[in-house]
Model the fold of this input.
Amino acid sequence: MTSDFDRIKERLDLRTIILQETGLQMKGPHLDSCPFCNGHECFSIKDTQYKCFQCPDDSSSGDIFTFIQKFKSLDAHESLKYAASLAGITLKEKKKAEVKLSSKERIFMEAAIYYHLHMLDNGGKQYLMEQRGHKEDVLRKMQVGWTDGGLVEHLRKKGFDEIEIKASGLAKIREQDGVEHLVDYFLKNVAIFPHFEDSRVLHFTIKDPHKKLKYQLLEKDRIKDWRFYNQLAIEKFKEVIVVEGENDLLSVLDSGTENVIGLIGQPAEYQLKALQAACRHKHLYLWLDNDEG
Done:
């Protein structure tokens, strides 16, 4: 069965598309100038492949999809869609596979929803919108929440048992009058930030309006894929702004800028390694506090 890639390649002529997209002309066997490095007499087009003899290795050659991806600054899926539109081909949307969440992941998601429903209660609106100046639509988008001490009871009502709730890390044992009770890990009346990646919550962090509490979900209790707050921005954008805290990140989003991630404190070694691996060909802008940390 012919793939979408093959159908589009058969329909499009690489030379025609490159001339059309760049506005350049052929000068003998080469393009006027390279659309990537602007070099002369170095960019050739042969059948379904192009090659530049002056570009760095990561953009020196490729096919119609590689060219569109690099020239239009698109990701692989977006370049396929753009090429399909040029070829007059309608792509069939693939149904996303249903994500099966573990018990812990389901608890994390339920907790994020619960906290978010209380976002503007008991001082939440005063802190998040009046004091910090965040826009409500940004707070809704990021599912920011507010704690009230009732999460454990809520999770019980949702059918989770004591072992599951305790194992999630969102609850802890407190002894009172010789009796052990399962209570919320996060204390009452603090802003809480669920850290999403697609349909999962990986981590929770908090901000105390009174600046007395400075803790977050323990590293052992986070979903192991967590690296940054709003970490999907790394995949979506060619340029990424790096900030420290949750309010820093929300302030950037308030301005209408979405290509931002949060370290949540000073960078850990695994975060530096993650940036090195994911951002080798991206631009990073560091917007960090000018303090000792």
Summary: The chain has a mean pLDDT of 91.
